[in-house]
Amino acid sequence: MSGADINVVNCCKSFPVAQSDPVAVLKGVSFDLLAGHSLAITGASGSGKSTLLQILGAMEYPGSGEVFVNGRDITRLDQGARAEFRNREVGFIFQSHYLLPQLSALDNVLVPTWNSRRESDQHLARAHELLKRVGLESLARRLPGQLSGGERQRVAVARALIMEPALILADEPTGALDRTNSESLMDLLLEINSIERATLVLVTHSPFCAERMEREISLLDGVIVK
Q: Whose CA is closest to 152, among 160, 12, 129?
């Protein structure tokens, strides 16, 4: 696996508001991040952090500007290419784990592979390897309801890695966890960033989480202030 070089150029985004002018959420955001490095995006609620993360993951289009991932402007991809980019090159981790309750931990990890052309036994072997890496090999057959909150988030991390993404995008992944589980999850994310060399971008309100990343940018009213 190789990480993703990111180059964001003058990215702007507004959202329509009924019977009012559009609200500008991002106002000319620009930054670079080298492959394999880690970045925290911080700022108050409503500052544009999650919107920026969604644009990086091709879940939202910017209103204007360019977003290059490994030299390719993802803002110019059509819907099919954007879906393939999200599935094959990006691993998403959210505050809520979004595990399917009827599937085991192992099967939840395998969900992103369902439409893949690779051999299923290759995916199965990687899923077992990832569950071992996140410390849940012995719980592979348990349902999400039989796991703790921290364990469910670790399954979500393994699921995000199953397609060997170049870019990991984490939106408040520790927000629902206590301090002990937050520290454990951050240890895991940074270990993965180091070993697999996937570029890691983390949105967080937590100074503890932000200070553990290599770089930090802070948004205020849609612009970078540091």
A: 160
Do residues 198 and 160 lie in contact, with contact meaning Cβ atoms separated by under 8 Å? no
* Predicted TM-score (pTM) of this structure: 0.91
DSSP one-letter string for the chain: -----EEEEEEEEEEEETTEEEEEEEEEEEEEE-TT-EEEEEESTTSSHHHHHHHHTTSS--SEEEEEETTEEGGG--HHHHHHHHHHHEEEEESS----TTS-HHHHHHGGGTT--S-HHHHHHHHHHHHHHTT-GGGTT--GGGS-HHHHHHHHHHHHHTT--SEEEEESTTTTS-HHHHHHHHHHHHHHHHHH--EEEEE-S-HHHHHTSSEEEEEETTEE--
pLDDT in tens, 30-71: 999 999 999 999 999 889 999 999 999 999 999 999 999 999
Which domains does the chain show, CATH number per domain? 38-58+77-215 (3.40.50.300)
Tell me the average pLDDT of the chain: 92
Compute the distance between CA of residue 46 and CA of residue 121 in angstroms, rounded to an integer: 43
